[in-house]
Amino acid sequence: KNRSADDLRSPICCILGHVDTGKTKLLDCIRRTNVQEGEAGGITQQIGATYFPMDNIRERTKELKADAKLRVPGLLVIDTPGHESFTNLRARGSSLCDIAILVIDIMHGLEPQTIESLNLLKSRQTPFVVALNKVDRLYGWKPSPGAPIRAALKQQSKDVVSEFDMRLSQIMTELKEQGMNSELYYRNKELRKYISIIPTSAISGEGIPDLLMLLVQLTQKLMEDKLMYMSEVQCTVLEVKVVEGLGTTIDVVLVNGVLHEGDQIVVCGMQGPIVTTVRALLTPHPMKELRVKGTYLHHKELKAAQGIKITAQGLEHAIAGTQLYVVGPDDELEDIKEEAMQD
Ligand code: GTP
Ligand code: MG
Ligand code: NA
Hints:
Layout: E1 12-17, H1 23-31, E2 48-53, H2 54-60, E3 74-79, H3 87-96, E4 99-105, H4 112-124, E5 128-133, H5 149-154, H6 158-177, E6 182-184, E7 195-199, H7 208-227, E8 234-243, E9 247-256, E10 258-260, E11 264-267, E12 274-277, E13 280-283, E14 297-299, E15 301-303, E16 306-311, E17 324-326, H8 333-341
Parallel strand pairs: 1-3, 1-4, 4-5, 5-7, 6-7
Antiparallel strand pairs: 2-3, 8-9, 9-16, 10-15, 11-12, 11-17, 13-14, 13-16
Helix pairs in contact: 3-4
The structure holds guanosine-5'-triphosphate (GTP), magnesium ion and sodium ion.
């Protein structure tokens, strides 16, 4: 297979954490969107996907002056629900990702689904960072909208800094009890041994530049080999959805390889394997959420990593959570049908 360090695919980053810690709101802050306020009961109930082109990440991190090192084309971020009833979606989201953000509410510390998420990440040995969110709720916090966290902390009174230090050290102790050493990211000298903590606010945006910068640096530093582009298609079905004017569509995450309009594909169906042809490859605009209704961009082909809506005939009985296969010129259709049904 053709692989090279000059041809890295976009890393996939999954956001995990207890309900209402601010996962979707953090993404809204980065995207400048309002997805969270449109959710029923303010609760995420599906996996989401948003593509961030590197130009946008560069723009948001320019104050940190480290952009020379960014070599991946962008970042695909997967949002997951924190509500306890969606363990299967957290498992699916975390199984797709190269790196994760574990979001912890600084006012609450570790909660049941924080620990569940930690265990998922440990069992898959997925590298992750902690976003210690809602710092704006520290009593007396002075907002510095969108600022790097160290600059924001310098603006705070002694009392705010001491409450911050107290809560941070409590949470580091709780992480230690789960077998994890952690450290504020700018004091962390041992990226492979200590989990980096980035204090953030999804409301006023402090720490967001730091979070983006660290994600990109970590993926490049720790997993260059894993990100080298591979031509073999690896693709997971997230959702099966009827869309007005498009019929039944599937939302997928393309983890590796390329998909083309016209590709013959096989997906697992409730009544047996579904063999069909890609009619349209659609994505939302960059920095928009795949799971939110909007206008779509049409593509002749798409390269990993991407969140994609596929339209094709016969998708009515497709099953979410299974793999999508592309039938290549040398493939036996029957073999692929069998493989698809093993999911
Ligand atoms: P689920 O997906 O349902 O698990 O929740 P979530 O983790 O995505 O949290 P969500 O983005 O829905 O935010 C939950 C609530 O916390 C909302 O009312 C947000 O406005 C609020 N919130 C999120 N982040 C912050 C923050 O940094 N500061 C403050 N003050 N409130 C926040
Ligand atoms: Mg959410
Ligand atoms: Na929520």
